[in-house]
């Protein structure tokens, strides 16, 4: 059972006068990497949010965004008149000392200063708001995991098709092995025949040929590659995060395919190896998306 690291989850919580929206987005990453954008009133709860996300999602680059909208009919912000008055006096004093005219548009100038808008929203979220946010976060995580599972099912199908393809290519290798041995024997005998007035021991030739062919034997590589293919398939059905494990198995598959290619010494076998490598690269690319 695979889970992709790509996912999206969203949940909304309603409170009297407030609407809280929690959004989670994740992409692939070797470790858990969380970027959080939360209102200042919820900063004290950010660590708890991060711990909850890390425990549930395990791996991935995760973006957490929380919006808190004030939906009450009355205004929740006020102009800070005392601050505006003080800023205006300072600007007028500076203009007089520098001998420059005062601004023609006071509103544009004064609204650029900090703290000229005073919010009536509490600086710290109360217990009800914190509980609502954590509940919404849990629901957003559930939605994201459901998304990940859907993407994981697509990956399972993708991998199964590629593993079957490598198995099919591997099954074609034996038909060229006998022909390869005969070609090697013929090439060696033809080479010796071109050397005139040289007598050689036929039995010694057979012995050397045997040793040479034994070095090119690919039975072990075929068996190990088959085992890796089976292990990969078994791992697909295992619960939990299997992305790293599948990556390691794919590396071992690559080693056997490379050795098979270096020993093949046959054009058709080398073509099969190239096709196996191409399919394996597709697997390796998608393994990076597995949790």
Automatic annotation (TrEMBL):
Its cofactor is a divalent metal cation. It holds the Pfam family YicC-like_C. InterPro entries: YicC-like_C (IPR013551), YicC-like_N (IPR013527), YicC/YloC-like (IPR005229). Residues 3-156 form the Endoribonuclease YicC-like N-terminal domain. Residues 176-290 form the Endoribonuclease YicC-like C-terminal domain. Keywords: Endonuclease, Hydrolase, Nuclease. One of its GO terms (molecular function) is hydrolase activity. Belongs to the YicC/YloC family. NCBIfam families: YicC/YloC family endoribonuclease. This is YicC family protein. It comes from Duncaniella muris.
């Amino acid at each position: 059972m695979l889970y992709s690291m790509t996912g999206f989850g969203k949940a909304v919580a309603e409170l009297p006068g407030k609407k809280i929206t929690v959004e989670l987005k994740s992409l692939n990453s070797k470790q858990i990497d969380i970027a959080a954008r939360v209102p200042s009133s919820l900063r004290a709860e950010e660590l708890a949010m991060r711990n909850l996300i890390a425990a549930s999602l395990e791996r991935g680059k995760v973006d957490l965004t929380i919006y808190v909208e004030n939906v009450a009919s009355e205004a929740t912000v006020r102009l800070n008149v005392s601050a505006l008055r003080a800023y205006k006096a300072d600007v007028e004093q500076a203009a007089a000392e520098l001998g420059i005219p005062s601004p023609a548009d006071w509103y544009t100038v004064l609204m650029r200063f900090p703290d000229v808008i005073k919010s009536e929203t509490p600086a710290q979220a109360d217990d009800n708001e914190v509980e609502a946010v954590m509940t919404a976060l849990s629901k957003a995580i559930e939605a994201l995991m459901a998304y990940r599972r859907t993407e994981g099912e697509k990956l399972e199908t993708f991998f199964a098709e590629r593993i079957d393809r490598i198995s099919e290519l591997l099954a074609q290798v034996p038909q060229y092995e006998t022909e390869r041995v005969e070609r090697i024997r013929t090439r060696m005998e033809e080479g010796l025949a071109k050397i005139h007035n040289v007598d050689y021991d036929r039995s010694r030739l057979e012995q050397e040929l045997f040793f040479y062919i034994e070095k090119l034997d690919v039975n072990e590589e075929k068996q190990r590659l088959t085992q890796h293919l089976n292990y990969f398939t078994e791992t697909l059905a295992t619960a939990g995060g299997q992305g790293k494990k599948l990556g390691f198995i794919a590396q071992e598959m690559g080693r056997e395919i490379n050795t098979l290619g270096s020993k093949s010494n046959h054009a058709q076998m080398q073509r099969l190896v190239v096709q196996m490598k191409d399919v394996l690269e597709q697997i390796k690319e998608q393994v990076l998306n597995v949790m």
